[in-house]
Amino acid sequence: VKRDLVTLDDLSDREIESLFSLADEYLAALGDLRRPPRVTGALQLAAGRILSTLFYESSTRTRLSFEAAMLRLGGQILASADPGKTSAAKGESIADTVRVIESYADLLVLRHPAEGAARLAAEFTETPLINAGDGGHEHPTQTLCDLYTLRRANKALRGLSVLLCGDLKNGRTTHSLAYALARFGAHIIPLPGSGLGLPDHVCRRLETDYHCTPVPREEHREMLNADTPLDVVYVTPTAPHQLSLLTSTGATDDGEAERRIQLARRTLANIDVCYVTRLQRERLEGDLAPAAYPIVDKKFLSERRYKNAQVMHPLPRVDELAYDLDEDPRGVYFKQAAYGVPVRMALIAGLLRLRPEVLSAVPPPARYEVYKPSKRVRCTNPRCVTNLASEQRYSTQKFWVIDSYTIRCAYCDVERRPRARIARVEPSAAEWPAEPGEKPVEAGG
Ligand code: NCD
Asked: Whose CA is nearest to atom 8 of ligand 1?
């Protein structure tokens, strides 16, 4: 079975750990001692292998660090950087493109503006594929770099308190990071620009997949200045499933709620990471620029809670992260970008099986049953890859069955609740089971 990295859940905890150990190894072998954590020189491990970078959206660091990583491993690259010059401009489908490129390269790295594009592409090729950003959906390799940066700073994720600032609605880096933080037991404090909070489907995944609990503002109000726009803090149970266990063994709801509030207050009192992101102007479409947007500078960080915070940013920055922090020891964003090379080297070596011990033969099992409806049931997200005109000729809709009321698009994660209750989960069912008298689910919802 070939392995892909479309979302971080494509990797098990052990695999993430081994990738990071391998990145450590590359840093030790090739680290530039005068300019850490830069790597220099090259190995011969990937000699004769080709990595293709297919970028349908602009990129500097992600594409160049993938290419640098492949070159440092001794391999070669085949880049299609200008979408205007590829066949996509002629209306070619993603499925056709990857089926062609797979005969030119051993590993594909795709960036595409449609949400879910990388999952769809991965399904159409036998070649391992890496998601380098699919619209406003996810950016898992940036998250690997983020987690690795924390690990190099000796920050354990469990119990870590992470402020996510900026465009949390359209910022794919914050979505992938939020999932990883929740998965590994960190607590999340969203500080969005106005109208740019985490999308519903991201909050849903935080709750259903990673057992995160939202603690609303009323319950931690006294921890904040009146003008701090924090609506909610997401806390992850400190021991997995602890909260649900407490409930089922008859603990009072009050006790559990009180524990969460205390946890949220502790989370706000001492912030370990301040993760800043830019306004994703290219995804605003008709939306107006937000009325307010958080700017992180020396003044913002002068509150005591940020005394030991690591300031991170996936870059590029615009005005949301002040240049006066470049000399501040809390700012780690350039290191974070530099770690992109050893981390991506490890990922390439793993996926190409140049280091077969890193990834196991099969991916982690899916969390939910799959449901493939007939053409009538469509994903309701207009930015989903399955709704692109170029992909409609072949793409089938595919959903995860979350519970008996909810299905989730397997490509973009947007959920929908058909009006009929789902009586019975039958992955092979040709049609969504509608109850008598209910209208069938309509396309476009
Ligand atoms: C990010 C992206 O492309 O999503 N950049 C990156 O890959 N480091 C962040 C951004 O563009 O704001």
From this structure: 314
